[in-house]
Each structure stands twice: as structure tokens, then as C-alpha cells.
Amino acid sequence: MNPTYDFHGQVAFVTGASSGMGLATARAFAQAGAAVALADVDEATLTAAVEHLNHQGHRVIGTVCDVSDEDQVAAAVDRAVETFGRLDMAFNNAGIQAPPSDAAEETAENFDRVSAVNLRGIWAAQKHELRQMRAQGSGAIVNNSSLGGLVGLPERAAYHASKHGVIGLTKSAAVEYAPRGIRINAICPGVVETPMVTDMLEGQAEAMAGILQQQPIGRLGTAEEIAQSVLWLCSPGASFVLGVALPVDGGFTAW
Length: 255
Hints:
Elements: E1 11-15, H1 20-31, E2 35-40, H2 43-55, E3 60-64, H3 70-84, E4 89-92, H4 108-136, E5 139-144, H5 157-177, E6 182-189, H6 195-201, H7 205-213, H8 223-234, E7 245-248
Parallel strand pairs: 1-2, 1-4, 2-3, 4-5, 5-6, 6-7
Helix pairs in contact: 1-8, 3-4, 4-5
Family: Belongs to the short-chain dehydrogenases/reductases (SDR) family.
Protein name: Glucose 1-dehydrogenase
EC number: 1.1.1.47
């Protein structure tokens, strides 16, 4: 049984919100009473997600947004504030995988693309969220890193570099903004059953078996489990928690 939260009268902003962890978190915020602004680069899936949540009676809007473009991020945050009047919570979730690569063969194009989305995208979202939260004197931000922000794995240097960077970004901003009433944390999900992971592992039965062997809990995580960690970090129950990189990984990093 999941804990319950009361976010009535509050506004949440979620990037990468049309599927996977982002959609599960947007849905959980809405079910807890928040108005939610969804942002995603995929217009078709974003429209479907917004229509579904609206049909369920939730107050949601959707904005097409490529987080690697700061102007688009600023516009998405501005629209959320203009529509709902404030911004209380944010989950900066949008991210991509980089193709596995020998570190000596990694292309600059791959490195730049994964950094643009996974690190600069979170930097841009956090920056513009903080401008509104600073004016309010309150707010909570959760940035999505990864177990790849805590460990290293072969052929994943570019991806892991971006996710390690998210943790540094989070900790520095958390220390800076704690005195201003704003809490900033990161989560580090393990292998979660999302479309991105499904695509990555499709046809790789041996890879999936290897991953499960590394999971003390013996299974993949769910998007809903990640959503619950985000809601807790945004809730009064985590009022003394800031600057953490919280593993939500089924015990992977406890080995």
C-alpha cells in the first residue's frame, strides 16, 4: 500500500512526462490533488497522456518541449505558471540512453547529445523552476539521475558521465537554495520497466538475465515505485531531506 499525499492547491511540473516514470509521476501528482503541467518532446504521446488525465477529471496541461533547448524549457515552465498561478513541485525526468560504446570509440555526437538532454536539460529545467520558486520562497525539485550516477559500467561512459553530473548539479543547487525555502534532491533509479528499457533490452535475453542476477530484490522496478519516491521527496514528510541522491534500485548499489 502506498502512502497518501494531499497536494491540493499545489502545482507540479514534470518533464519526459508522456510515458514511463514521467507519466507515472504526473499521474500520481494529479491523483494527490495537484494541478500538473506535463512536458515532453513527443507530441502524440503527450497529447494522449493529457487527454487521458483530463478525462479522469484532473487539472493538467501539456507542452511540447525538447529539454535540450533552453528556450523551450523556459516557455514550458512559464506556461505552467501562467496557467496555474504558481509552481510548487518539479520532477526533471527527461532523459535518453546513449548507445553502448568502447570508451576509446565514443563519438562526440553521441556524447554531446546525451549530455544535452540528460544534463543540460535538467540544468535548464531546474534554472527556470528556481526563478519562480525563489520568488515564492518555497518549492521542491527532484532531478532524475540514475544508478549510473552512482556507479560505473563498461561501455556506458557518456551516459554515466551525464548522470553523475546531475548529482553534482543537484547537490550544489540544494546547498545554495536551502536557506531560501527550496529543497532539491535527486533520485537514482535502477533498472525500471519503462519503454526505454524495453527497447534497450528487446531481443537481449542474456542481458536481461544478467540484470536480474544483479537485482537483490529479484525483479525490475516499476514506474509507479519511482513516482512514489518523487512524491515523498516533494512532501512535508521529507522536509529535512535535501541534497541527497536517493537510490531507488532494488538493492543494486548495496552489493
